[in-house]
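User: Fold this, then the next.

Assistant: Folding the first:
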Amino acid sequence: MAQCIYEQTLAAPADTVWAILGRFGDIGWLPGPERVETIGAGVGMTRLLHIPGMEAPVEETLVALDDEGHQFSYRVKRNPFVPYDNYQATVGVSAAQAGCLVQFRSIFDIDQTAIDAAGGQEAAEQAAQTALSGFYRMMADALARVAGAGQ
């Protein structure tokens, strides 16, 4: 299994950021999806992210939620956008001296096509970490904008 860890400090209180991030089914603050559908509520709920240009939605299921600890975990059943299987991520927010720290941690398998294209497992893992870190940074930056706007 490969992994990626990305952390970013935001100049907003942890409670403010969690109030936005902790609503698993409500990600209107995130650029990209043109529409998000939810199935169910609470742990076990699924969100379907409809991305422009993609035939099938990205399907994510909430597997753990700790409101008090400002953390949730989810798994991706289907993501036609990336060549990763068995993807599971944990996202958390904690207080920091300059506001809060947002942390994204993910584990996943890289499919053989991506390994071959990258020239081996190590190169594929580095490419995955670069791609995911970029995505996590975009998410953290979006959170910072929304939290700063008081939404």
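Now the next one, as you asked:
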Amino acid sequence: MVQPGKKSFLALAAVAVLLTYLAYNYTVPGPATGPLPSTFTVGGKTFQITYTASTQAQRQEGLMNKKVTDTTTMLFAWPSPGYYQFYMYDTNTSLDIIWIDTTGDTGLVVYIVAGAQPCYDLLTCPRFTPTSPANYAIEAKAGFVGANGIQIGTTIGFG
């Protein structure tokens, strides 16, 4: 039988082991390398990329506290494909998030969240994780996906 004081100690020890494991086995993705595109094309329409996020600090900030219009887009880039998660902390509007598996100047849409709502409590913000790996993601104002006929499998060109 475990004594009450030992039970608390064992629980704290288990948490410490878990945190140590996570600290040594989770690596923050490094910066994307190479030149990043300034435009993307989908459905015959070309769009300017307003903001880019190729470092971890830029990816964490995203469109937080930025004015988002119907033409605002942000490209997130990682050095290799992965299951990169998003949350909508302190954004000023709902956004569409499009994950893209890219090789060269083209990519395929592998996952979409349409109309992700802003949240203002980081601890309770919903997290959005793709079901397939991607090395690019695009955020745009909610409605962008529907207005441009974007769905899983859509080809996107980059320039």
